[in-house]
């Protein structure tokens, strides 16, 4: 990076399509990536606006399983769902954990009541901050509408994606 720092910003406009996870993350997921950290307070189930956030996290994990990276460990830091949604949240995360284990990947889940920021870090030094976390897709029109399965075809909420390389970010 000639100027000694790297920062790229992507603006996703309201209702834009073509921003599936592969499109956003693929260029940073090199073969050297073996460990991933996801901080997102809203990986939940019942939280109304984030009803799909567990599925979004699952979709993100599927992308990691497909490679080309050789991910062995995923660390998720999120917050507990309030009230009745907590059981679905914990059982959903447990199911994702078991499924990842079948692919040789360990999922470590931790909960924080004070987490606010949303960021994804790869052990090759790349860090991606998405204003809305993994939950930037709009709800599909219906279960049999285009974009339900293929996130590249799913309209997005407006959000900003910032990409940094940690070689050039200060450690706190």
UniProtKB/TrEMBL annotation:
Cellular component terms (Gene Ontology): midbody
Residues in MITD1 C-terminal phospholipase D-like domain copies: 18-165
UniProt cross-references to PANTHER family, sorted A to Z: MIT DOMAIN-CONTAINING PROTEIN 1
Protein name: MITD1 protein
GO biological process: midbody abscission
